[in-house]
Structure prediction request, 333 residues.
Amino acid sequence: MQGTRLDMDRIRAAREVIDPVFLDSPLYRSEALEPLLGCAINIKLETANPVRSFKGRGTEVVASQLAGSDSRAVVCASAGNLGQALAWSSRDRGLDVTVVASRFATATKLDRIRALGAKLELVDGDHELARERAAAIAQYDGIRLLEDSLDLETCEGAATIGLELVPQIAQPRTDQPRSDRSGDRPVVLIALGGGALATGVGYVLKSLAPEVEVVCVQPLGAPALTHSWHQRRVVTTDTTNTIADGVAGRIPIPEVLDDLLLVADDAVLVQESSIVTGLRMLLDHAGLVVEPSAALGIAAILEDRDRFAGRQVFTIVCGSNVDLDKYRAWVGL
Prediction:
């Protein structure tokens, strides 16, 4: 696909440097959810790895590059999952990692960053303030700044998920429920935060399986990139208000928006109540404890059942690093 920053040769090369523990994650049809959702729902489970999120795919690419360079120090801002992944990927490569996060981030994620050996610096603000602080550290210390979604390694690492999805989408099961509308296309629902996952997977799908509909999903309480996609310009917000902390950005990256405009067919917003219902459904009917960002795809189906009725739907369950006390309150345990 022309016009994006991404490159298929680099994405295929990324598979060669990513630890196999992050590759070929489970993909299965969840028949127990289908009567409730009215569609053939297929789960791509990106939590079955040591950092319990898809972020390890991108950080493996970054860490492999740094391990072969003169500079062996890196800093990033993270809501939690990127920091864990970078710490994990860097630990055995002897890299020096600093993670900057909001002190209001999920405690479980922060604890895991520390346990993996990274230096953790907390700021009294949201993720955007953490991004500013990480950039300042990189400039002052003269080290690599890893910027999620802006740095192509994070997008192209995530894009390897798309390489794994395409063959499965091309060979759907014949017993899946179908609607009377023969023209309905398969659809992939992708959580939208900074944009690495959506642009990476979307690029591969539009390049190799253009018949697939790519729909990005973001919380109504953190709508900046979705509004930007619809208005075709960067739209920022002053605040965010969502339980889906992993996708709660306020200031979209222009380069990411440019890519997203080329690879996404739609971007939708969902309510907090639908996210909570999605969390409960994934627990009760799929046996999955996930973080709110991972339930966005289910939330999108719940809010627009007619759109997805009878279709072959794929959703990427992107993370399961959740504060258990908060989780129990959300799902009523």
